[in-house]
Amino acid sequence: MATDPDGSQHVEGHLPISAGGAGADENFEEEEEEEEEISTAKRPELDETERKRRTEIKVKEKEREEELVSRLAAGVNPEDGEGAVEIWEGIELQKLPLRPAAIEQANREIMLPVVSSRNPTPVATILLVGLKNVFQRQLPKMPREYITRLVLDKNHISMAIVKRGYRVVGGICYRPFEARGFAEIVFCAVDSSEQIKGYGSHLMNSLKDHVRKAHPTINVFLTYADNYAVGYFKKQGFTKEISYPRERWVGYIKDYEGGTIMQGRMLPKVKYMEVHQMLADQKAAIIAKIKTLTKSHIIHPGLQIFKERQPDEEIKLTKEQVPGLAESGWNPDLDDIVRQPKRNPYHVLLQHVLNDLQSEPSAWPFVKPVDSSVVADYYDVIKNPMDLSTMEHKLENNHYESIEGFVADVKLIG
């Protein structure tokens, strides 16, 4: 121990606490607080907070869905607090509740910003990188460098679905060709954990309204879809029948091996964010018009004769004895037509087989008919040409009366 002139003692080689001055104790406490803050920051507090936030959002979504269901069951419009009915030329038009994705956007739980690297900002850069990551996760067969190059290319524009914290959960990347009147959809994907909320349809409708405002000369979308995306694009109004002039788009859009080119046309008077309400209004107007021309909406009481029927008693009636049946124009031959199946019983099986054939990488030479301008003597050598697109057309139009006919066409390809 060492003794100071003032009589205080301390361990040799160490300064006494008083050597730090009057604020030494305070400084020491501050250092301890800083160490605690540093150690706290190292713990995964942010992840825990994010987990709690997501749990709260899910609880709110569930509560909102339950409220919507209860209001609808009671015949109450969820948006107006009561059954809202708009009268148009004497026709009652029931107002539909908003879709879940639209409700989330109205509550600012999601946002749909349009971003591009043409005028980069820090936020736009964050969203583009997040969008690039989503595309790379959801499109694993696409080269990662290729996705990065297109998303960050100045000629491409993207619309992203963004949640709090700049978290990108989906989006569409497109390239406009204003001089040629169309836009190419390059990438379209929604994170796998968010695909049950209607984000895909909401995103496409938002994109259509945006493109019509931002690019007035564009009214057509073109895209190459893989077998997994064809169903989605069909639901969004796309078709495999390309009516847009070939000379306006060939050589301008990216051609993917094994992909199916699809076309979507935008109607000038349709607000796609309100398309569900518009279709419901049209349906109500058509039904109201039908009621003025027919009596199909009239409900007749049951036949008393069947209530008084004795056991084992067989009753046969003519159509004139059934109220409203003769007036409807019904005849027994119609039953035979209605009972005919729309599809062959093995249609689903053949559809699955055809999808597997189309997704086979080695089937690329047989996806479409051979162009005679490329191979001049092909149809002279091959007397019975066949390809997968022709088989798809035949299957969709019920040309295969048996499985054997389908197998015969497959053998023509093989």
From TrEMBL:
Alphabetized Pfam families for the sequence: Acetyltransf_1, Bromodomain
The N-acetyltransferase domain, residue ranges: 115-257
UniProt entry tagged with the keyword NADP: no
Bias kind Acidic residues: ranges: 26-38
Gene Ontology process terms (BP): positive regulation of transcription by RNA polymerase II
InterPro entries: Acyl_CoA_acyltransferase, Bromodomain, Bromodomain-like_sf, GCN5, GNAT_dom
Subcellular location: Nucleus
Region (Disordered): 1-54
Annotated keywords: Activator, Bromodomain, Nucleus
Gene Ontology cellular component terms for the protein in this record: histone acetyltransferase complex; nucleus
Primary localisation category: nucleus
Sequence similarity: Belongs to the acetyltransferase family. GCN5 subfamily.
Name the UniProt record assigns to this protein: Unplaced genomic scaffold supercont1.7, whole genome shotgun sequence
Taxon lineage: Eukaryota, Fungi, Dikarya, Basidiomycota, Agaricomycotina
